[in-house]
Amino acid sequence: MRGWLAALLLLLSAVAYAQSHLPARDMKIVWDRGAPKVSFSAKDLADDRVRRELSSGLRKRLQMNVSAHFKGSNYELAHRAFGCDVTRDLWEDGYLVRIGTQSKRFRTLEDVLDHCLVVEGLFVAEPKNYENNKGRDIYFFVRAEFNPISKKQCRELIRPTSGDEPIGPITVNIVRRRICQAERTVEFRSEFLEVPE
Amino acid sequence: MNRFERKILFAIGLSVFLALGGSIFLAQGALREVYAVGVNERFGAELVHGVEALRGQLMALRSSTEQAADAVQWAIEAELARKRAENRLPSLLDELLQRYPFVRGIRVTELDGTPIAEVSRPPTTDTEPMRETSRDRAATVSGRTVRIAVSVEVPEVYFERLQQAGEAADVYSRLQRQSASVSDVYVWVFGTLVFLVILVAFLIGAIVSRRVTKRVTALAEASRKVGAGDLTVSLPTSATDEITELTQAFNDMVRDLRDSRTRIEYLQRISAWQDFARRLAHEIKNPLTPIQLAAQEMDETYEGGDEAYRRKLEHARAIIEEEVATLRRLVSEFSAFAKLPEADLAPADLGEVLHAIESSVPAILEDVGGGSPAPVEVRTAAATEPIRVRMDPMMLKRAVDNLVRNAVQAVHGAAPSGGGHVLVRAYKAGSFGFIEVRDDGPGIPEESWVRAFDPYYTTKAEGTGLGLAIVKKVVLEHGGEVRVDRAPEGGARFTIKLPLLESR
């Protein structure tokens, strides 16, 4: 029993330590009809290499994940994600950006980054996710990724069949996860705030 | 778990986990080598070159379309500048369309959009998806400006190939960057799986070795018990291995020890009884003669006229003389028992004993019959080959004589009118020689088999209980054993078992 308690304490301490060491960034948070609308910029994800890759003519992905957590806990209260598939059009000048099923053209890369990495008034889940937690301290965690390879695509690219050997299925999954992770990631959190009554 | 088990398990664990460590170390090197062969910089560079080539091809195609659009513009400008009477613009556009195969159509309009001339290729039945774009130009001749729209198309597959090649190069580049960590993943997964296999092997080894160590531990424990004097221990010998052989040898040793101790104890007991018999015989024998003489004298010197008293005296004298005779016989047997010599062993054939018995059978029958031969058939059967044992022929003959005498008495007692049989035979089986005396008399109750050889234990009315004790003493001194059980004929069967000479 003591061992389990010690392990739990250790885990909580680790979570608190990780949160306190996560860089906090100014994020504008407005509560609208019981749900938070967040605004922030993750444009620093696009360093020189990212910009070069985005202009290569190959389709690249900018993935944004925003989640709400309780202070001192890793429990995910709410989550919102979207991604931009950016392709520089080698035939016509400009960039083609696809978000979900919608496509949009932009003349410059800067326009693309403003559209994909500068978030304005994004609802992070619905009021029902927060209504039972009024008065509690929460924070928003942002993870912006450049070119993570989707699970489906990763499976297609790295050894579609796992083979008959027992070592195959285990290792392929680990290798896929490692290889297909984002090429560049920016993570930050908001300041702690209270869910309004 | 005792120290021995711990040591065995430690040895097993050490060997298997050393093997694991070695295999992981070697596997790590091998995997890194294999990975370096499969994922190397050259291939990565070639993939990137491939992507560049595809991109270059696209860019060249784009450049060609631009050039075609420019050429179309110049040709139209030249045609408009000629100011011919007839309008050759449609045929010029047809020519241009034939000249540039990737141009899909050309449309010439006024600035306000009024069409002047237009040509286009007929729609093809080819299902290959195409990307179509328009290159717009303006031609101004003598102050007149017209718009020229050149629509060009390029197969979509060019873009797809570029994308696919780019993705492959991207993944390859990632694999190359993470070659060390990917090969480490394989090593760790391999190591974990091998560890699990070895763990199972270790557990099986531990279980199997435990079976051996348990038996060795049981042997050690049994040895301690034997050392403390407990000779009743016996260990199971179900398996067929060296430990079982060791256990069997241990059991044999304990059984030999137990038999030796039993033999020694019996002989010590017999020796004590012999001493007792000697003193008893001495104490009883001495007063017998004066008692008998006194009784005779009292009877013979009576001179009175009382007839009744005389008869009483004669009756008393007869009783005394009969009992004294009985006591003399007892004393004689006690003396014989007390003076029983120790066996003097020498190599001989058991058949000799059988022949000696054969010749003494008439005397035995006469003794038992009380003057006339008892009507009992005594048969002897000796083996055709010699049964060589170390024996004292006289002593052994005496022992067998006792058994035959007992058998004849039993058979005669049960059937005084005849019809009884006694069989005496000698044979060998395994490493032992046997003499068997069996009859078809009433037999010995099973509950008496254990005590039958105890001195002074008898079920006969006139027995002293010394005959079988003498038999056992003689047999034990020969290093053999004697037992009693039921004969197939229903009577008693006594079996003397002696080790053969060649088995010693």
Would you kindly provide a written description of the structure presented here, covering whatever features stand out?
The complex is a heterodimer of chains A (197) and B (504). Chain A has 197 residues and is of the alpha+beta class. Chain A has helices at 2-20, 48-54, 109-117, 151-157, 167-179, and strands at 28-32, 35-41, 60-70, 76-88, 95-99, 102-106, 118-123, 137-146, 184-189, 193-194. In chain A, strands 3, 4, 5, 6, 8, 9 and 10 form a seven-stranded antiparallel sheet that branches. The longest helix of chain A has 19 residues, at 2-20. The model of chain A has no long low-confidence stretch (mean pLDDT 87). The radius of gyration of chain B is 61 Å and the shape is rod-shaped. Chain B has helices at 3-38, 41-82, 89-99, 156-177, 179-227, 242-300, 307-338, 350-369, 393-414, 467-477, and strands spanning 103-110, 115-120, 130-141, 144-155, 346-349, 376-381, 388-391, 420-429, 432-439, 481-486, 492-499. With 504 residues, chain B is an alpha+beta fold. In chain B, helix 5 packs parallel to helix 6 (242-300), helix 6 (242-300) packs antiparallel against helix 7 (307-338) and helix 8 packs across helix 9. The longest helix of chain B has 59 residues, at 242-300. Chain B has four domains: 3-38 and 178-214; 43-174, PAS domain (Beta-Lactamase), CATH 3.30.450.20; 231-339; 342-503, Histidine kinase-like ATPase, C-terminal domain (Heat Shock Protein 90). The chains are: A alpha+beta (197), B alpha+beta (504). Chain A binds chain B through residues 56-59, 90-92, 147, 149, 153, 157-158, 166-167, 170-171, 174-175, 178-180, 183, and chain B through 51, 55, 58-59, 62, 131, 133, 154, 159, 162-163, 166-168, 170-171, 174-175, 178, 181-182, 185-186, 189-190, 193.
Short synopsis of the structure:
The complex is a heterodimer of chains A (197) and B (504). With 197 residues, chain A is of the alpha+beta class.
